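Hi there,

I know you've been waiting on this one. I reran it after we fixed the sequence typo, so this is the corrected version. Both the input and the resulting structure follow.
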Amino acid sequence: MIAPYIASEDTVLEIGIGGGKTAALLLKHCQKLVCADISAEMLQATQRRLGEDRVSYVKLDGLTLNNIPPESMDVCFCYDTMVHIEPRDIYNYLVQIPPLMRGKRLCLFHHSNILTPLGWEKFLNDYPHNLMGKRDGTAFSVMSDRIMEKFLTHLGYEILHKETELVPRDCIWICKSPFPSAEC
């Protein structure tokens, strides 16, 4: 999911880097990588793993992408992060991504899909631990491919590919963000 979409001259934003496993793969294919996460610990772990050559680190507040310069990213990559984020928060990030994009404006988004058999099984296993506003940190979000498609089309993203077979519990979208001036 990386090599066909990321070129050696690209600046790539990865939202939700975790420990940097995917970031290490991305760095092999791009000119510059911007690692963004809400966790200072995950940013530090990734920095220890990747260093500072061609990589920068941005601490997010969970609501905004304000610390990322406008029109500075060619690719936005968000894999294994949105599976833990609720739909309203996913939508919030999708609204904020277009002003950051330039060039090919390519985005890869990966999220859970409770409408698949494995997604439904995961929902049933998770729901007792996430009642009355409580949120277990390992729970997957109550998201579906239909909801994400509505989000993307409403916001003007151009859907290039929808992948539901590679990770049978989830959904991966390859799309182009709208131009930064597009109204969201």
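Quick highlight: The domain at 11-176 is CATH 3.40.50.150 (Rossmann fold).

Best,
R. S.
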